[in-house]
Here is the input.
Amino acid sequence: MEISLLKSRYIEQCAEVAYANYLEASDLFSFPEENNIIDILRNKIEQLSVFNLGVVAVENEKVIGYILGAPIEEFYGKNRGIYVPLYAHGAIGDKVTINHLMYRKFAKLCVSKSIFSHAITFYVNQKEVIDGFVWNGFGFRCSDAIRKLEKVEFDCDYEIREVSLAEAPMLHELVNMHIEFLNSSPLFMFRQPEHSSKGLINWMRKETNRVFGIYDDNKLVSYMKVTEKGETFIANQKSMANICGAYTLPEYRNKGLASRLVSTINNDCFKRGYTHLGVDFETFNYLGSRFWLKYFNAYTLTLVRRIDERSRIKF
Here is the structure.
């Protein structure tokens, strides 16, 4: 086995490896039906290859593994980083060993270019591979989850409805409370507060975006946002909608409000013809993770490693 820099002549074989890994995961999870997955994977790998930050494992002229990513100037802090999406790595055969050897080369390439924060998204069924990266210093950061849509019955003692544009200032207050929560211990997710509701209003005006709220005497006490686009190529399929934000006032928690919003969005998306609903969440938000995993099946895990920026190496 030879591990070298990824060249364009290997992209087709890389897409085949990615597709094999996708099929393994699709046997376990209810992904949306899509006929051109291999084409999507090939195009995305080709687009990512322009950054020249990839390595490939080849044996007897056959690609048995690859990894490549996109550089980000400030990634989880002030240092440069790199993100390896779900489709941008894969292996066949002895996956644990191949990934270990590829990452050694890939990490050397990244650090030689002062890229110190590394994030990689895996299918959750790749447990042994994930464990190998944990032993390499990675830790959990976030996850994507999915559910198949069918109509559900539920009741609620509060009013549930779509949040109107006129109510954007009230929604804006809760959004900033959510941002404050994300910035707090132990999450420490740096987010700037929204200084006005203008950006929120512009987002709400898009046809694919909706916000549902729960009201107590016309006071918005909980909200959940839904859109079409998600964080993975699976979540971006046309038959899938994605929850992209939620918050409940502390005094209204443990009353089942968020679960009612999931059911409301579930039924609304089902009515609109979607077949699946997704969500992405931070795994280190312990209570949030427990909530989402009650209603969704996690199909990815994103792991992150921060390398000492004093490290210097030539590739």
About this structure: The domain at 2-143+301-306 is CATH 3.40.630.30 (Aminopeptidase).
